[in-house]
From TrEMBL:
Pfam family, one: Vps62
PANTHER family: BNAC01G40110D PROTEIN, VACUOLAR PROTEIN SORTING-ASSOCIATED PROTEIN 62
InterPro entries, per the entry: Vps62
Protein name (database record): Vacuolar sorting-associated protein (DUF946)
Lineage of origin: Eukaryota, Viridiplantae, Streptophyta, Embryophyta, Tracheophyta
Highest taxon of the lineage: Eukaryota
Length: 567
């Protein structure tokens, strides 16, 4: 598939047998510590203003799909168990059957301080609409019901029964509309056959996880943990019309960790970062980079200016106006020394921010490498190291671990990979010791991955693209010890003093235009005669950054500084 704007990352992980037993609960390798004293972090319940919510992780299985007629993997559907007295279910939970049981749904109650008898925050549905049903000898009946809310209220999720009779309205609660936000589909969990409609057309029954449409550290949307299902095509519209997510209207974000708790969380969960055993371009601290010869250039001036160790003489604020950039010194020995980096000085720069309306905390760890080395291309069975393509000065990479503010446990990790990346559930993370995950940094490019191996950026089907090789080695950075918190805006002004260099919004390296013609010719000469690609086809298969790059910007200029991670 040529001209595709997205790239497929493949580890070649074998799938579990679709007929495996029901999911087994997952737990972290080690117990959680006692966190330092605070307000609402890890207390089990979170106030969203007029309603209070609790996370339910104990479930009772209701129904599992039958793989004999599924287009995708099997899925299992659950109702919440052990809901605390006074709290009410908002919807049921589902997940793929071949994954460890690792999920939640929120249950809610009206906050004690609220007196709204005429227009309470929560109400029973008026009735239900049957969305879809299935019956099989192996798994029995599965009936999917969408709550029909009273006027001024919205449904939060779908419920599943194993009997054809309409459920009791006591089963679930709907939420007053002003306490909700729009949500969208996230991951497809199940797709089953085709469902005939009254007009004669057909479409598959599909089940999706959901998330708030607006996400980021300033957004109020709270994921309920329930799912959405339908019998119509959702491919052109991600926004879900029939259900909503919650909204956190408590401005105090009382469930977020205080500074002492943040340090404790990092010391408990901080990942170990492994660099490739053949890595030639190591990370360093920003201060080491400045002290050892990095220069600030300005448009129209031929000579660079030395940078203070704190970055205090860098232009601060504004935006990337392309007027300033950082580059290596002209002296070849100093330049070579700077390119190599300095592992001993390196440290993780931490940004702490609310996620999903303050029900989770994102701990974003930025790592700086003075130089990004040349790419290595894979052409079928051939591997071709480039001499210049892929090189640039000033490489900022990051990974994020997401902490559940209900319990204080590690929930997910985001591994950033060349302007993309993906979330990995805690159940699929490699743990080095106790609850400390492993992060693998790719050779020369420093992208982050959850497991060792070779990851291909390009066409996995054709075996053509950029290699990302990751492996364990003696070159490590322990982020639980070597870190500096550089920003945590939610704690208020002055709680964390941001370094001067963080306010530098311009480029950390010069713009590069590669003369890639000769290297592309090498690629063409390596291709077998049976594979006939035009030069345009080859160009389309590789990331555009291989043919030239603007200088990379710093952390605060990235979209994920305020926004959610981009997959």
């Amino acid at each position: 598939m040529f001209g595709c704007d997205c790239f497929y990352w493949s580890r070649g992980i074998s799938e579990l047998d679709s007929e495996s037993s029901e999911p087994k609960p997952f737990s972290l390798p080690a117990p959680l510590p006692s966190w330092p004293q605070g307000k609402g972090f890890a207390t089990g319940r979170i106030s969203l203003g007029e309603i209070e919510v609790v996370k339910i992780t104990k479930f009772h299985r209701v129904w599992s799909s039958d793989s004999s007629h599924d287009k995708s993997k099997r899925a299992t559907f659950y109702r919440a168990d052990d809901i605390p007295e006074g709290f009410h279910c908002l919807g049921h939970y589902c997940q793929p059957t071949d994954q460890p049981l690792r999920g939640y749904v929120l249950a809610a109650r009206t906050s004690k301080a609220v007196n709204a008898d005429d227009f309470p925050p929560l109400k029973k549905p008026v009735s239900y609409s049957l969305v879809w049903s299935a019956d099989s000898e192996k798994n029995g009946g599965g009936y999917f019901w969408l709550p029909n809310p009273p006027v001024g209220y919205r449904a939060m999720g779908v419920i599943v029964t194993h009997e054809p009779g309409e459920p009791e309205t006591e089963e679930v609660r709907c939420v007053r509309e002003d306490l909700t936000e729009s949500c969208e589909t996230s991951e497809m969990i199940l797709e089953v056959g085709s469902s005939k409609k009254s007009n004669g057309s057909s479409s598959p029954f599909s089940v999706w996880s959901t998330r708030p449409c607006e996400r980021g550290m300033l957004s109020q949307g709270v994921a309920v943990g329930s799912f959405f299902c339908c019998t119509y095509d959702l491919s052109s519209e991600r926004t879900v019309p029939d259900i909503r997510c919650l909204k956190n209207l408590d401005p105090t974000l009382h469930a977020m960790p205080n500074l002492d708790q943040v340090h404790a969380v990092i010391e408990h969960f901080g990942p170990t970062v492994y660099f490739h055993p053949e890595e030639a371009y190591m990370p360093s601290s920003v201060q080491w980079f400045f002290k050892n010869g990095a220069l600030l250039y300005r448009s129209g001036k031929s000579e660079g200016q030395p940078i203070n160790s704190t970055g205090s003489n860098l232009p601060a604020g504004g935006c990337n106006d392309m007027d300033f950039w950082i580059d290596l010194p002209e002296d070849e020995e100093a330049k070579s020394n700077l390119k190599k980096g300095n592992l001993e000085s390196s440290e993780l720069y931490v940004h702490v921010k609310p996620a999903l309306g303050g029900t989770f905390t994102d701990i974003v760890m930025w790592i700086f490498c003075p130089f990004n080395g040349p790419a290595t291309l894979k052409i079928g069975l051939f591997t071709l190291p480039m001499t210049r393509i892929g090189e640039h000065v000033g490489d900022w990479e990051h990974f994020t671990f997401r902490i559940c503010n209900f319990s204080g446990e590690l929930w997910q990790m985001f591994f950033s990979q060349h302007s993309g990346g993906g979330w990995v559930d805690a159940s699929d993370i490699e743990f080095v010791k106790d609850n400390k995950p492993a992060v693998y940094s790719s050779k020369h490019g420093h992208a982050s991955f959850p497991h060792p191996g070779m990851y291909l950026q390009g066409s996995s089907k054709l075996g053509i693209g950029v290699r990302n090789d990751v492996a364990k080695s003696k070159y490590i950075v322990d982020s639980s010890q070597r870190y500096v918190i550089v920003a945590a805006e939610y704690l208020g002004k002055g709680a964390v003093i941001e370094p001067c260099w963080l306010q530098y919004m311009r480029e950390w390296g010069p713009t590069i235009a590669y003369d890639s013609g000769s290297e592309i010719n090498k690629i063409m000469n390596l291709l077998p005669l049976v594979v006939r690609f035009s030069i345009e086809n080859i160009v389309d298969l590789f990331p555009i950054a291989l043919y030239g790059e603007e200088g990379p910007t710093g952390p605060k200029e990235k979209d994920n500084w305020e926004g959610d991670e981009m997959c």
